[in-house]
Amino acid sequence: MAKNDSFKVRAQELSHQTPEYLETLFAVGNGQIGVRAGHPLKVNELYGGNPGSFVNGFFDSEPIQYGEWAYGYAKEHQTIIKLPNLRGVRLQIGDEDSSASEWQVKPIQMTLDLEKGVLDESYKVVTPLGKTFELVMQSFASMTRSELYVCQYQIKNTNFSEPISMTHPLEQKAAIVQTDDPRVASKAHHLRKADYQDYAIWTAENSQRSIAIRVINGEKQLQAEETLTTVFQMKLLEDNQNHETPFNQELADFEVLLQEQQQSYQQFWAASDIQIEGDPVLQKGIRFNLFHLNQGAGRDGRTNFAAKGLTGEGYEGHYFWDTEMYLLPFFIFTNPEIAKALLSYRGKILPQAKQRAQELSQEGALFAWRTIDGNETSAYYPAGTAQVHINADIVYAFQLYERVTGDQAFIETVGSEVVFETAKFWLSYGDLVEKEGKLAFCINGVTGPDEYSALVNNNFYTNKMVQNNLYYAIELAQRYGKYQETISAWQQAADLMYFGYDEQRGITKQDDGFLEQAVWPFETTPAEKYPLLLHYHPMVIYKHQVCKQADTVLAQMLYTGDFSLEQLKKDYDYYEQVTTHDSSLSRSIFSVMASRIGDSEKAYRYFMDTALMDLTDLQKNVVDGIHAANMGGSWLSLIYGFAGLYYDQGLRLANHLPQKIKELKFTLFYQGEPVKISLKDRDIDCQLAETTQLLATKADGGIWIKER
Amino acid sequence: MAKNDSFKVRAQELSHQTPEYLETLFAVGNGQIGVRAGHPLKVNELYGGNPGSFVNGFFDSEPIQYGEWAYGYAKEHQTIIKLPNLRGVRLQIGDEDSSASEWQVKPIQMTLDLEKGVLDESYKVVTPLGKTFELVMQSFASMTRSELYVCQYQIKNTNFSEPISMTHPLEQKAAIVQTDDPRVASKAHHLRKADYQDYAIWTAENSQRSIAIRVINGEKQLQAEETLTTVFQMKLLEDNQNHETPFNQELADFEVLLQEQQQSYQQFWAASDIQIEGDPVLQKGIRFNLFHLNQGAGRDGRTNFAAKGLTGEGYEGHYFWDTEMYLLPFFIFTNPEIAKALLSYRGKILPQAKQRAQELSQEGALFAWRTIDGNETSAYYPAGTAQVHINADIVYAFQLYERVTGDQAFIETVGSEVVFETAKFWLSYGDLVEKEGKLAFCINGVTGPDEYSALVNNNFYTNKMVQNNLYYAIELAQRYGKYQETISAWQQAADLMYFGYDEQRGITKQDDGFLEQAVWPFETTPAEKYPLLLHYHPMVIYKHQVCKQADTVLAQMLYTGDFSLEQLKKDYDYYEQVTTHDSSLSRSIFSVMASRIGDSEKAYRYFMDTALMDLTDLQKNVVDGIHAANMGGSWLSLIYGFAGLYYDQGLRLANHLPQKIKELKFTLFYQGEPVKISLKDRDIDCQLAETTQLLATKADGGIWIKER
Question: Which residues does the UniProt record annotate as the domain Glycoside hydrolase family 65 N-terminal (chains A, B) (predicted)?
């Protein structure tokens, strides 16, 4: 396979070709705009599929209807708006009209060029009256001009001489999704369109959010071999913005835009690429994952990374803890500017988080479990608001960002307030109580990452993360001379944090009651009853020892150094046998920890189960969008797992390569410097910049990279 | 106060006179029909108040909208239908029409005659043109003919000579209640009316339930001093019933109906009256409570006792565990036929309970937490379906019924299957696990009676009740030679039932985690923040030591004999200080237990806080209906508390009279025989029937009544 072939994902290489699946996988985006690879002629109901376009942060809202209301419940749903299939065109040849009768359209090829950041397609088209031609398309969402989506159309090999009229009749009806699947959710949104001189403004009726869309070169009479380059300029409008002049930018032509795109991707790959020897399919799959991570991340500080990126409607376009715990490690170590933008979003929604804490009669701030604009939208609080660990997850990410980049200025201006306000929340929500005969700081009535337990006392992961949150708050308070009067209370809470441990079994307790519950009857549960959440009432799931995903094991991945190898192994073995991996966030963590406890072959199996999750449609729901966190998880499996990356006063790396992977090469950025890491067989090496402030030492078969 | 004055409740004696409040208190009912004491001229929007009529079991349904759906959730709301103000009449004198312009109507008197079961009213009416007259009304829902509501109108003292035309234009619009109060709930229902020859059929659009209403003598031209007796015949139609001939009964005239009514109440009071010396207001208040208990109980085996009786729309007309734990003791000991009818309802809905257990992937049967037709309608399962203790509550009531009445035949035909199926559920839902170093039967992930904790492990009340349920199942299985193969498993589960106990503090654990949580910050919670459920998010409430109502104390009331007096006192003192009594089911239980642990004065204070709850509108929501369970609770406070009634191989009674109550006299029925009990000062006496199978012995200052 030639080098750049491993950067090309072709539709015909994939296991199936259903339109909705390809629309997701071949969606192009730039963190602001995402366009599904919809049928090129679909402008109305005539052609199949579920195409559409998304603008990060453009959502509609509606009141949440509760069967039974209670005080403090989240008030409104938020749903990302699916805009029309921008790339879809109406073609007319003489009296024939592709929007009036169905034209035969057969793909010749559909290739996502990961290296250049461009989607190349060509189709063989036959009209009802037998006119044939090829439609060639090249499209991308510009990485350098975030408002632009560009699509070039070319007509080739016609068997007729008339011109083809090409137009973009953008229309949008209310989008209504009805489903019982809680992973998708049922919502409706309604759009109002107002036409202006050379653009239109689309307004969501309830949220009153608006975007302006300008279609440049949307229409043309094309002769054979001619091209039309349509540029869509899309701008999310601020509430107080003057709607009359949303666009004031001069636009470059297609070649310039294309060149910029390629340069941007060149930089991206230089920083982010992971080279894997020994498995070309895996190599391509990993690049596909990294490509989608680059496509989905909001970069403007006002938007974040939706669970499905900008590729589909799954999870309503909401932002979760996925960003901090599954995506930010990749960005922090390879593209810290994007990490900074994503973290800035949390700073921006801090007022909503403060408001939410107040609604819960608590001090400080509590970030929304799921949101677009910062307000809590979780309609089932036991697996929503009760996952208060999101506060500490966000703080963990700020802290990791600082440690890896050294960017204290950002922490001072943005991060520190988040850290202080969340620390205040913990002091308010947690309780200093007598526990097992002594005073302990307990966090009761919460839900940890494992959503198959809910409203428990002392979730291990939560307590571990909160302890870190408090210590970091103390560090920053001391650094910036703030909250001197609170430091001792934070110190006491952190020092007395309760961690449950079953002395008899020698197992870390996921929560106070977990180990005392009956183990789920796995042996009598048929395969078709998974995922359990779709086949069992929550209260039945909750009362069992059964995990949807890594919880204690995730805490131990983040704080591996705090545990003996023996303890890590015992906990791993115990929790592995009660985990269903019904969440796509699970296997990557089990992979990392398998690497770290010395079972590289198991680590490889877990990794391979998910590295190609979307390309192979493992979970059968790629139609709703990519699984962004799982893509970030595949990076974790490789870098935190096989390469053992762990922060410990610097970067520690180790070689945990499984048999099947012969060689692994990648770059990390530490203190602003690139560090090239290579693993081969049992060796590990690193290459520092020519002029470096870093020092790499080899120890215990690994490498420890520190500041001089 | 003359004897029968203490049977007369007069509107002018009450603290306030708002129409909705009087409508509830003066509602008349017979367990099948309930009619609020609405404005006599209200047939449309012209007059105020919120009048209406109810037929037990006549409800509409609609799908429950969940913010986020999950498997096994209850599917439909059910809401009792508010029918028109049956007693409201349209009057016309010449050109004047009471339904077209507002006539002045001033009550002269409004008296509920508890002794006769009749509501007596008279009003002074003035028309816009100055015609004046008195409207005298006498109304009741017939206790002997459950289909009939009777209202007699008389015109007196006219200042004019024309006749008055009186008509009953029954119309009903869709009733829509919108509220955020979870104790009321927001629902809509829609009625369709079809007219037949001399009756109409009203059908609820979604549930497709129908009733036929015949209005007999609804219209007349009345001269002064003349009367019109209108009879409403109302019949809930079975699905397969021929709608053409719902009525085939000959009707008696008013005097006969009235006489029957008085005889019925004579019998009722002979069996049920409680005589209290020393406090006439209390005496009347208690009778008022017993009267409403008699009015609300469904007697046809297909209906039950709604939380608000048939007096209002609160709690949507649903049946809860209130029936078994707060109302059935009264009926079992005074009117066992009504108790039998209420328990028969549980037998009738057993198929729905079996279905529900299946939906929860469990064996046996799980009764709905709230329902009309037997299907679960609780839209918030942590304080609904998770209150699985209702299963054991129902079994407790069957068992008490059998012990007190000796009616084994009913247990064999109806009760035993309920007992077996619930026992199967427990074996399926509970888990035999290792707990505190030994094997224990644990019931995890449930909510006990105290709704300020949810989804806990090993709720003490639940485990205690389930143990009893299992033992009773074994007893019946042995008696009837059934389930021989399951007895040993039931025995093991019951014998190994887990009960949490805090050795250090010497306190019974409400659940595994309760005592390890922080105590609610009562000292910093202002009075206006109660009830807590209206001012704090559930997860904040749940994570604290705070009880809405008696839980452990309720278990100890039911099984007082299983605990040492010292333990009862310690637990009482502990739980009392963390209980808000935000539920109207709380204080009566604390009163009973205060009596039993020797604090009669505290028992009296708790009793007095609630004995007159509705007459004084203590909770400010009498407008939504009476608090039936609290009325039953006042009986418990008196009989289980002050008179110490406790089943122990017979009836044990004791004298715990508080200072303020000089004398207490009442009748209980045991093994079909009346037992007259009198308490005075420190004495207690009983009088058995002349020919008796019972034996009364005095012991420990109390009386023990057993079978010979």
Answer: 14-235
- Could you please report the per-residue DSSP string of B488-554? HHHHHHHHTB---EETTTTEE-SSTTGGGSEEP-GGGS-GGG-SGGGTS-HHHHHTEE-BSS-SHHH
Catalytic residue among B115, B316, B376, B451: B451
In which band, very low, low, confident or very high, does the pLDDT at B15 lie, cut at 50, 70 and 90? confident
Mean pLDDT of B472-480: 98
pLDDT of A396-440, one tens digit each? 999 999 999 999 999 999 999 999 999 999 999 999 999 999 999
Instruction: Residue B298: count other Cβ atoms within 10 Å of its Cβ.
Output: 24
Angle at B476 between CA B704 and CA B669, to 5 degrees: 35
pLDDT band (50, 70, 90) for residue A205? confident
Interface of A with B in 375-434 (CB under 8 A): 378-382, 384-386, 429, 431-434
Q: Tens digit of pLDDT for each residue in B241-256?
A: 555 667 766 777 999 9
Q: How far is CA B296 from the centre of its chain?
A: 7
- What is each CA distance from B269 to A13, A78, B189, B275, B299, in whole angstroms? 86, 60, 38, 10, 18
Residues with Cβ within 8 Å of B71's Cβ and at least 6 positions away in sequence, in order, are: A533, A534, A535, A536, A537, A538
Residue with tokens 């207490």: B664
State which H helix or E strand residue B463 sits in: helix B460-480
Tokens for B385, please give them: 């379906």
Is 50 exceeded by the pLDDT of residue B1?
Answer: no
The counts of H helices and E strands in chain B are: 18, 34
- Taking only the tens place, the pLDDT of each residue in A541-592 is 999 999 999 999 999 999 999 999 999 999 999 999 999 999 999 999 999 9
Q: Under 8 Å CB-to-CB from B286, ≥6 apart: which residues?
A: B274, B276, B611, B634, B635, B638
- pLDDT tens-digit readout, A488-540: 999 999 999 999 999 999 999 999 999 999 999 999 999 999 999 999 999 99
Predicted local confidence at residue A189, as pLDDT: 62
State how far the Cα of B199 lies from the Cα of B15, in Å rounded to an integer. Answer: 40
- Which one of the listed residues A250, A255, A451, A566 is annotated catalytic? A451
Paired tokens of A484: 């001197």
Instruction: Give bridge partners of residue B91 from the DSSP assignment.
Output: B166
| Residue A69 sits at the chain B interface (C-beta within 8 Å) | yes
What does the alpha-carbon distance between residue B292 and residue A591 come to, in Å, rounded to a whole number?
66
**Quick one: DSSP state of residue B56?**
T
Pairing of strands A90-93, A96-97: antiparallel
Rounded CA gap, A60 and A76, in Å? Answer: 10
Q: B568-597 in b/e burial notation, b at 16+ Cβ within 10 A?
A: bbbbbebbbebbbbbbbbbbbbbbbbbbbb
The predicted model scores a pTM of 0.94
β partners of residue B703? B653, B698
Kindly determine whether residue A64 and residue B64, on different chains, have CB atoms separated by under 8 Å: no
Section A627-654 average pLDDT: 97
- Is the pLDDT at A218 greater than 80? The verdict is yes
Contacts of A308 (CB under 8 A, 6+ apart): A314, A315, A317, A624, A625, A626, A627, A628
Closest CA to B191 of B59, B88, B51, B371: B59
Which of chain A's residues have a Cβ under 8 Å away from the Cβ of B507? Answer: none
List Cβ neighbours of A183 (8 Å cut-off, separation of 6 or more).
A314, A315, A621, A624
User: What is the Cα–Cα distance from B389 to B381, expressed in whole angstroms?
Assistant: 13
Q: What are phi and psi of A396, to 5 degrees?
A: -55, -40
* Residue A307: closest CA among A637, A626, A635: A626
Query: Do the Cβ atoms of A368 and A375 come closer than 8 Å?
Result: yes
The Cα-based distances of B17 to B10, B20, B378 in angstroms read 11, 9, 34
Which residues make Cβ contacts (< 8 Å) with residue A633, sequence separation at least 6?
A: A326, A584, A585, A587, A588, A589, A591, A610
Q: CB-CB: which of A182, A360, A537 is closest to B537? A: A360
